[in-house]
User: Fold these one by one.
Assistant:
Number 1:
Amino acid sequence: MENCGLGAENQVLLAQLTASAAVATLPAGNLTSQQGSASYAWRVPATEATLTLDFASVAPVRAVSVHRTNLMPAASWTVTCLNGDAVVWSQSGAMNVVSGQALCILPPGISGNRVTIAISDSGNPDGFLSIPLMYVGDLWQPVRNFSTDSTSSFALGVDEATALSGAEFPQHRWTQRKLSIAHQSYGAAEVAVLQQIQRVAATGQNILFVPDPASSRANVESLFGRLSGGEIGNPFGAADRRSWTFTQTERL
């Protein structure tokens, strides 16, 4: 088990994006949007494609993830990190897509200035690939892990009509995952990082949260969306402990 990871340095928003294929009105540049709508996604008019991200400079890459996609569970990908023309790290295999989400965790210490992501989903019944949201970048992990007081839940969008007889007619619109992460053991030296994450989140940028990067269920448990941080506290006096609770909601 590893300590949780927070990804607030999304290179997708800064890199030059080049796709091997795209619908003219739904280019790879749409990945810089913070919305998870299929109507503003990168769409490939086939069932395989490669996306290349060229960074302005060498940067750490610990996580690659896609969200709100139409990819099937059997989709596969090859993720490669390069520094110049030299391959620093590469891995191929099943994406293990769950509810449109997939996650690839790289070993610590991997850095490069180019990442390529080749996706194949030949069994997709839509006949095209739709990827609205993507994260490529570093994960910051605190020295100590979050509290077991943390909770997960759902926010539900339901329109409900009630007849005069009392009969109820709910109409489900959307389901949004939600996390409330409590942490009482940050070190004082980590406060500057927490403040920077809050500044980034305040702009509306999506943040990636991975409860346990080493977990076999990381692709299921991770959440990409808006983060709202509470106040940073000092509940234990002179002890090197700082508290911070944040809520995070899945971006739809």
Number 2:
Amino acid sequence: MGGPFVHNTSELLALLCAAGVGACAFRWRTANRRDFLLAFCIFLIGTLIRELVVYVYGIASWPADALTWSGFGRLFQIIGGALFVRASLKHACGEWGWLLVFAVAALLAGLI
């Protein structure tokens, strides 16, 4: 599919996420909006973790370790997404936007 080092889409996505994290680190000092860059980097790290789980354990019948790492990666994705929404609402809503993000996330997760 992509040469001798790439065997599936999961590997390609993991490599793309690793490149994105490297780009975030490279741009950190000169970034205008570090809040957006941090949110995106955290989301990419979560996606990288999840894709590494797929690469190492395969697509089906994951052991408990794989589920734990996958959940950890998903948590990073959720945190990155929440931080991105907070950065988007920061100037328009202040800290109320941050509280709104948590309330909506809890509502969607079925916690409320």
Number 3:
Amino acid sequence: MGNKDFGGRITTRLSSGEALSLRGTLNLNPSGQSNEAVTNQDGSVDRVASVQAKSAEITFADRGLNLDALMKSDRFNVTFIEDFTGVTHYYTGAFLVGNPQINRANGEVTGISIASEGYNRSDA
């Protein structure tokens, strides 16, 4: 089912046991490489590759999680489970990057991403 279906409930759990209640969009960057096109003076195009962390941009509900402790924590694993599609995403050896911001008008935490050395996807 995971090839043509999207959306639905996505649950998120850290290996510490903490659960995040995601909001809005979950953007995944599962590749460990980014490519850039470079145009030469003769009009030919070359490709320049850069190594990058596998990452995920997250927005979640403020449920009192100690963000300072989480930003300083040891590396952890993160699992995203798409209930509707049956797809599970695993980030291993992850940590948070960015600057967490809490919007007290709507209780939304933004400004952070997960960076990881390992990523794996499992389709049901």
